[in-house]
UniProtKB/TrEMBL annotation:
N-terminal signal peptide: 1-27
UniProt KW keywords: Signal
Lineage of source species: Bacteria, Bacillati, Actinomycetota, Actinomycetes, Pseudonocardiales
Protein's name according to its UniProt entry: Secreted protein
Length: 159
């Protein structure tokens, strides 16, 4: 009897350990940065979803949302030079991002606002590719994607 109870307890404990290890790891506290690969005719990508970010200009800065209180964010991912779309790009490397909710001037150029949103895991993003360099015109495609829960820092999204 004692052996069967011990075997049952051991089996139950093993199942609990296996179930716990099957839970996916969360990146950056449950958030992902976004890296993009687009067609060569895409010059900016508008992304809308739930997350948080710091933003900065030459003269000021702030935060939109927080890790404990994520919020709705609209962001424009812009290629900083022509001829770079078609390859993987991320903010600080081939791209810059500004958020509509942040202060200061937004767009490409000196003294403009910069940010790098962290998108909440397991939430949907609306993604629009555009031919304009500043997310204002020339929509090429629109799709909804879900931010993964894979433990990686970046969500590598090929459009």
């Amino acid at each position: 009897m004692r052996k069967s109870l011990m075997a049952a307890a051991l089996a139950t404990g093993t199942a609990v350990i296996l179930a716990a290890s099957a839970t996916p790891a969360l990146a950056d506290g449950g958030f992902h940065y976004l890296a993009l690969r687009t067609r060569a005719d895409v010059h900016s990508v508008f992304v809308s979803g739930i997350g948080w970010t710091n933003w900065a200009t030459q003269n000021s800065g702030g935060t939109v949302g927080s890790p404990t209180e994520p919020t709705g964010i609209d962001a424009c991912y812009q290629y900083v030079a022509t001829g770079l779309s078609g390859d993987w790009a991320r903010p600080g490397q081939q791209m810059q991002v500004y958020v509509n909710q942040g202060g200061g001037r937004q767009g490409i150029g000196s003294g403009y606002q910069y940010s790098n949103p962290r998108w909440q895991d397991a939430h949907n993003l609306t993604v629009v590719t555009l031919s304009s360099s500043d997310c204002t015109a020339g929509a090429l495609s629109k799709k909804s994607v879900s931010v993964p829960t894979d433990g990686l820092t970046y969500f590598w999204l090929s459009l």
